Amino acid sequence: MEHRKIWERYPGYELLRWYARWSLRSCFRSMTVEGREHIPTDDGALLLAPNHCATLLDPMSTLYGFDAAVGFGARSDIFANPKVARMLYWLRILPIARERNGLSEVAKNFEVFDEIVDCLAHDMPFCLYAEGRHRPERGLLPIKKGIFRVAKQAVDALDKPVRVLPMGLDYEYFFRGQGRAAIRFGEPIDVGEFFAAHADLPEAEVYRLLCEELRERILALIGRIPERRHGRILLRILASILMLPVFVLCAVGSILIWLPLLIIMSRIKDKAWTHTVRFVLHLLFPVLWPFHIFFERILRYWLELAEDLKK
């Protein structure tokens, strides 16, 4: 299916990106961005490599931290519907087949890799989740070499440095709202320099070393949100009682968000979609944010108090 190049300027895209970042911020108690000094500022090509633990919310967090247009790769089966595919291309997303899709589909990845290199040639960063799938847990799945195959193809095709930038997406809670979130950038890996420094090794061994290096750099960027404080139990119990009328008011005011969230998530087996569904509902009902923010913060306050009382 023919489509416009994802690096081209799309009418309305920047407005939507701004609104999405604004909506995303409403889903968390705080969002911090660290390590922006590691983002290269020269004219080199850049591949972003975050961990993957919160489905579609991870690309939104990537855009929040990077604060510029970025291309993304996503599993190819969601492009089956032509109308959905057009929308995904407009959002600067390209289809990438996985082994489970069959060899004929995986073979199409070579064409997609050419598009990614074309994107890098036109100075637009591209994001690939090197684990290959998401998992709502601390830690990291094994790194797959696909991102470095793309990077090596870009090294061979482009007359400029090609770097892979490690990113850590750190969420305090995977299934609760109004937790803390952090987006961290690590030191980039210059793929051309890495291959040159290991020219005496077989190519497969170089890819293995690159995957190990990227894994270590991402692991150093996650799992660093400090634990919350647990004291002042009696004062917190009194405060929780006083919060009840406010909670009732906010529950009524935000029912169009939290009730659909409960219903939708009760029908989805993969609970990693919790943050994503919450984010989409915030996109749809911006006027209800204040009610839902306080609703979830009070609920989180009570849940944390209950956890502390059990200890």
CATH architecture of the largest domain: 3-Layer(aba) Sandwich
Helix-and-strand structural type: alpha/beta
Mean pLDDT: 92
The parts where pLDDT drops under 50 for at least 5 residues are none
CATH superfamily of the largest domain: Glycerol-3-phosphate (1)-acyltransferase
Number of self-contained structural domains: 2
Number of strands: 8
Q: Can you identify the CATH class of the largest domain?
A: Alpha Beta
Q: Percentage of helical residues?
A: 40-55%
Give structural notes:
With 311 residues, the chain is α/β, with parallel strands linked by helices. The protein folds into 2 domains: 13-219, Glycerol-3-phosphate (1)-acyltransferase; 233-310, no CATH class. 49% of the residues lie in helices and 13% in strands. It contains 13 helices and 8 strands. It has helices at residues 13-25, 57-66, 82-90, 103-107, 109-121, 146-157, 191-197, 203-219, 233-242, 244-253, 255-266, 274-284, 289-310, and strands at 30-34, 45-50, 71-75, 93-96, 126-127, 162-171, 180-185, 189-190. Strands 1, 2, 3, 4, 5, 6, 7 and 8 form an 8-stranded mixed β-sheet that branches. Helix 1 (13-25) packs across helix 2, helix 9 runs antiparallel to helix 13 and helix 11 runs antiparallel to helix 12. The mean pLDDT is 92.
SSE blueprint:
Blueprint: H1 13-25, E1 30-34, E2 45-50, H2 57-66, E3 71-75, H3 82-90, E4 93-96, H4 103-107, H5 109-121, E5 126-127, H6 146-157, E6 162-171, E7 180-185, E8 189-190, H7 191-197, H8 203-219, H9 233-242, H10 244-253, H11 255-266, H12 274-284, H13 289-310
Helix pairs in contact: 1-2, 5-6, 9-13, 10-13, 11-12
